[in-house]
From TrEMBL:
It holds the Pfam family HTH_3. SMART domains: HTH_XRE. It comes from the Bacteria. The keyword Cell membrane does not apply. PANTHER family: DNA-BIDING PHAGE PROTEIN, TRACRIPTIONAL REGULATORY PROTEIN-RELATED-RELATED. The keyword Endoplasmic reticulum does not apply. CDD domains: HTH_XRE (cd00093). InterPro entries: Cro/C1-type_HTH, Lambda_DNA-bd_dom_sf. It comes from Lacticaseibacillus manihotivorans. Keywords: DNA-binding. This is Helix-turn-helix domain-containing protein. GO terms for molecular function: DNA binding.
């Protein structure tokens, strides 16, 4: 199951300000992304995904992406 950006960040042991500094964005953007209020740019999403070791899809969609895929698999059965 894919985790949300917040879940991945916490699992890796970073605070919002630490993650923001590591990838070169504001803490406010990280917060807004975690709350689903804003998506990062393509560049930001790539940096976050690379730094956290997850797919860009996980950054953009988190658990919703996995749920959607699971529903598609169930429909095929």
């Amino acid at each position: 199951m894919m985790l949300s950006l917040k879940d991945v960040r916490e699992k890796r042991g970073y605070t919002q300000p630490e993650l923001a500094e590591k990838v070169g964005v504001s803490q406010s953007l990280i917060s807004q992304m975690e709350q689903g209020k804003k998506n990062g740019s393509v560049s930001t999403n790539m940096k976050l995904a690379t730094f956290l070791g997850v797919s860009v899809e996980a950054i953009l969609h988190g658990p919703k992406f996995t749920q959607s895929n699971n529903e598609k698999q169930e429909a095929k059965r």
